[in-house]
Specification:
Elements (H helix, E strand, L loop, with lengths): L1 E8 L5 E7 L7 E2 L3 E5 L3 E7 L8 E6 L2 E8 L16 E8 L10 E5 L2 E7 L16
Parallel strand pairs: 3-8
Antiparallel strand pairs: 1-2, 4-5, 5-10, 6-7, 7-8, 9-10
C-alpha cells in the first residue's frame, strides 16, 4: 500500500509530495513445534514456547478449533545496548480437534517454557470393557 510519507521542498520553494511505500514492521511470528500424544483418557498437546509468560499466553477453543497464541517480549536491561540480536516473538498454532472431546474439561499448564494442553475425551468415546453374562 503506497502512502504519502514525506514532503520535500521543490526547486521553486514549493512543496512536492514524494510517494514511497510506507514501511510497516510486522511482528515476527513462529509456529512452535508440538508433540501430540493420545491415550484412552485424553489427547496431550506439548509445545515449546520459551520466554512466554502466563500473561503473554492465551489458549482458546472456538467450536472445534484450539488456538494457542503467545508473545515473548524482548528482554529489557539497564544501560546502553552494545548489540541487540534478540527481538520479541509471537507464537501461534491452531488445531482442529476431533469429535468426542470434553471441551469443558480442557486444561493447560505452562512450566519452564513448555505448555501442556490436556484435551479429555468424552465418556461416550472412551474405550470400556463390557461385562459378559453367562446364561444357562
Amino acid at each position: 500500500m503506497a502512502t504519502d510519507t514525506s514532503m520535500s521542498a521543490g526547486l521553486n520553494g514549493g512543496v512536492a509530495k514524494a510517494r514511497k511505500p510506507e514501511k510497516m514492521q510486522a511482528a515476527r511470528a513462529a509456529t512452535p513445534p508440538v508433540d501430540i500424544y493420545e491415550n484412552a483418557e485424553e489427547l496431550l498437546i506439548v509445545t515449546d514456547i520459551p520466554g512466554v509468560t502466563q500473561e503473554g499466553l492465551t489458549v482458546n477453543l472456538e467450536k472445534r478449533e484450539l488456538l494457542i497464541e503467545g508473545r515473548r517480549a524482548r528482554a529489557e536491561a539497564e544501560g546502553a545496548p552494545l548489540a541487540i540480536e534478540s527481538e520479541g516473538l509471537d507464537y501461534r498454532r491452531s488445531f482442529i480437534l476431533p469429535q468426542g472431546i470434553d471441551a469443558e474439561k480442557i486444561s493447560a499448564e505452562l512450566r519452564q517454557g513448555v505448555l501442556r494442553v490436556r484435551v479429555p475425551k468424552a465418556a461416550a468415546v472412551k474405550p470400556r470393557q463390557i461385562q459378559v453374562k453367562v446364561s444357562s
